[in-house]
What does this fold into?
Amino acid sequence: MTTATVLIAALSGRGLAASARRAGYLPLVADAFGDSDTVEHAAAARCVTDAARIGFRAKPVFSALAELAASAATPPIGLVLGSGFEDRPKLIAALSRRYRLIGNDAQKVARAKNPAGLFALLDTLDIAHPETQLTLPSDARDWLSKRIGGSGGTHVVAAGSAERSAKR
It folds into this structure.
């Protein structure tokens, strides 16, 4: 078993922490809940206050990660980002300047979260996907609306009740 530590930041870091443990790493988790299941899998954990309510903000995330890194017996090998960063490419970029990212960088996340670009790529690759458009249809029955870059699904609503906004 390795004694290498790995930083994890996610709205819920439990699954990533469990996976890191199974792979032999010591996970250091910053998440929005700090629940007992996460703490059970983590070598150390910090709750990022208000992240579940308002999303991740730079100062609280950097503070939690710095505390975790300082508590580690060995320097963390990198940072794994989970849910909650999909609509925050600027924060991902800032984190990548401080920590080695294990996973997608800010540019790749932004590209994957750009509906026009993603669905055009899927069409080019002949990969099936639901019909998608960036403006509400005149007949919104049977359509859903979701915030661009959003994760988790709490922002998915019937299109007829969505705000008429290009960001949905």
Observations:
- The longest helix spans residues 58-71.
